[in-house]
Specification:
Elements lengths: L16 E3 L2 E3 L6 E5 L7 H14 L3 E5 L3 H13 L4 E4 L4 H9 L4 E3 L8 H13 L3 E7 L5 H7 L4 H17 L5 E6 L3 H12 L7 E2 L7 H17 L5 E2 L7 H14 L7 E5 L10 H12 L6 E6 L5 H5 L4 E4 L6 E5 L2 E6 L4 H21 L2
Helix pairs in contact: 1-2, 2-3, 3-4, 5-6, 6-7, 7-8, 8-9, 10-12
Amino acid sequence: MDSKSFRHISRRETRKINVGDVSVGGDSPISIQSMTNTLTSDPIATSDQISALVEAGADLVRVSCPDKESTKSLSQIVNNSPVPIIADIHFHYRRAIEAADAGAGCLRLNPGNIGGKDRVFEVISAAKANECSIRIGVNGGSLEKPLLDKYGSPCPEALVESAMNHSKILDDEGFFNYKISVKSSDMMLTAESYRQLSLVTDAPLHLGITEAGGQRSGTIKSALGIGSLLWEGIGDTIRVSLAMDPVEEIYAANEILKSLGLRRNGVTIIACPSCAREAFPVIRTIKELEDRLAHIRTPLTVSVLGCVVNGPGEAKHADIGLTGGGKGNHMVYLSGVADHRIDDDGIVDHVVSMVENKVADIELKNDQG
């Protein structure tokens, strides 16, 4: 059986909402998002970072709005952004109203934490008037005291109960344009919380392992937690939270989706781990190729293997393949067929050139219909 036949994942049915012009839930593609770490009150720096995130593949970008100076800058940021902006709000209901009026596509807040019913109604009214969605964001590190008293510590039941309490507030006001997250820094706690939540709501779910850590540990933890849920069909939009340049979050999220066959976006590189048989420096070559091909959004598969043990077999399934042949005599495959040989000099330049030419051909064919 073709390995691709195993890649079909049956996604849980959720209702579709809109975050600006990006749909989330239902049959919508799983979207990728990150969050800026600039001062939102500095619209130029924030817009520059948003541009970098979008270039890396972000579909949505969240910005923090802790004060009035931030929401004052938000309309300029929204106008400069090619993707919808999510305003991160904690406790300050007026910031939520200001953000909705400034054009945010979504408000990240918990309705139960912004005051009484009158304040919630004002925020919902602003969200409705501006066609702005809401993300209910439950976090194990900031769970409500009554729930901590009830359960003793953060647990899946506590996170789910918190999420449903907040969502009921919106439901009672006739507002259904919302999604939910139930995050924790504990990957197992987070995954089980989402599993339980998926059984009691049809709201779209935003997946993430909060405060996951640095690039290495955070990526592994997020891949396991987010990836296992997506594999089970749970999740409609994702963020990989890393203590790194936010652009790295986009790259990691994209790789998770590509690995599960849920997105074909950019170059997928198949590479061996290298060994004494390698006929060229595989590790260095892969690092350079990843850096130089990161900007490409067209889906392509490139296999780069250091010797002939598995190289020809992998090349049969790649758009472009390179197999180390020894003595500076390496075989290049195009669409699985041996095409030409190259020597050691300029391996990376040669592969990059082939990828760029292939992308240009694909784009030309697409333009011609």
